[in-house]
Specification:
Largest sheet: 5 strands, mixed
Order of helices and strands: HEEEEHEEEHEEHEEHEEHEEEEEEHEEEH
Strand content: 25-35%
Distance between the termini: 121 Å
Number of strands: 22
Radius of gyration: 34 Å
Structural class: alpha+beta
Length: 396
């Protein structure tokens, strides 16, 4: 009879836990017992396996966790506080081992388990090469990469993610290499925020800037202004990325691209361009301070300048230059049609050498410098108006 009552009590408590909207025992599956450091605000599920009972308790702001013991009320089992246990900056495993000794002496219970069913909210101080510096309010069960990929604290393009400095609640200082996490998937390189008190993201002082069709990393922000500044006459789009990779000496192009997270599927690897060396291959070397452009393949042609409807035009295989100009409504009355040129990859191609328009080309229709009759007539009118004004003032 007693065992049956205990079994019903256990079912009742587990149903109550499953109906809670924000609490889930699955939270403890996201980290190991050795990895998670408990602290104030954590909601803990204590399982007394020998008795087939469980209860929930939370760690208070003093870092103390109430320990409960069961007692009978008519035909049900309830729990009441019996003691307090310090539970602050220790792992789940350390807390479990400590509770085993206590329950063994109080209830003769030797088989217990712990789960964090609702991880606490905590504050992490973020400094360095991130979008915002300051305190971040985060869930303890998240990881460093989650924090640094959030909108407010995402890293800048020149952040050195190989040497992120982390201060732990135990006042230890760790150097974290998040690039290894992205390449291997091993969580050892992406610490839990339960073990993080402060984060410093340094900037890359010496390295190579790569922009264009490169992947980058989720924790590094897309910087449109930097791409525009680097672009010059390059073909760039909003899908371009920019990233700086660390290098103390010359580095092979393929190694630099690997450190940038690799290239996107539409990268044109036979059109790589160095700002210092011109066109390069994967086996060439780049020097510190260089900029590498990785052009993208695109299925569009961009028409800019003095046309009636400038913008992107779908690539039309075999179509002539005139076809694309007609698609955009033709010339405006300010078009210098004899000076049309195309920006192709990293080169400026004049009208008589364009040949067939290619995907990714930018067709530029410049403005005429001074248009005969219209501009001279306007200029004459301005001069005439000034003379009339001068004569009028002179006669007064």
């Amino acid at each position: 009879m007693i065992k049956f009552v205990l079994f019903l009590a256990l079912i009742s408590q587990e149903l109550e836990a499953s109906q809670s909207g924000t609490e889930s025992s699955l939270a403890s599956e996201l980290f190991s017992e050795e990895e998670y450091l408990v602290g104030p605000g954590d909601l803990i599920l204590v399982l007394l396996k020998d008795l087939s009972l469980s209860y929930r308790t939370s760690i208070n702001f003093g870092g103390l966790m109430p320990l409960m013991v069961p007692f009978f009320v008519k035909d049900s089992v309830q729990f009441r506080p019996f003691s307090l246990k310090r539970a602050y900056n220790i792992s789940i495993k350390e807390l479990k081992d400590s509770l085993k000794g206590w329950y063994s002496s109080v209830l003769k219970v030797n088989d217990i388990d712990l789960m964090v069913v609702s991880p606490r909210l905590l504050t992490v101080l973020v400094k360095g090469a991130t979008n915002t510096n300051g305190p971040a309010n985060v869930r303890a069960s998240l990881r460093l990469a989650n924090l640094l990929s959030s909108e407010n604290f995402i890293c800048s393009y020149d952040a050195d993610i190989n040497r992120i400095m982390v201060q732990t609640p135990r006042e230890e200082t760790l150097e974290v290499d998040l690039e290894k996490y992205y390449k291997t998937g091993e969580l050892i390189y992406n610490p839990l925020l339960a073990r993080v008190k402060a984060v410093l993201v340094p900037r890359i002082e010496k390295g190579i800037v790569i922009f264009g069709a490169v992947k980058g990393y989720p924790i590094k922000m897309f910087q449109k202004q930097v791409i525009q500044a680097l672009g010059g006459n390059f073909t760039v789009s909003f899908e371009a990325n920019v990233i700086k990779v660390p290098s103390q000496d010359s580095i092979m192009v393929r190694d630099a691209l690997d450190k940038a997270g690799g290239v996107k599927s539409y990268a044109l690897l036979n059109e790589l361009y160095s700002s210092k060396k011109g066109k390069v291959t994967l086996d060439d070397y780049l020097n510190v301070g260089d900029t590498l452009y990785v052009p993208p393949f695109t299925d569009k042609v961009f028409v800019a300048g003095e046309v009636r409807n400038p913008g992107y035009v779908p690539y039309l295989p075999g179509a002539t230059l005139e076809t694309y100009l007609s698609y955009c409504g033709g010339f405006t009355n300010r078009a210098a049609s004899h000076r049309i040129y195309v920006i192709r990859a990293n080169k400026k191609v004049h009208k008589n050498k364009i040949g067939t328009v290619q995907p990714g080309d930018i067709i530029i229709v410049p403005e005429v410098r001074l248009k005969w009759f219209e501009d001279y007539l306007t200029l004459a009118q301005v001069i005439s108006s000034l003379l009339i004004t001068w004569v009028t003032l002179k006669s007064l």
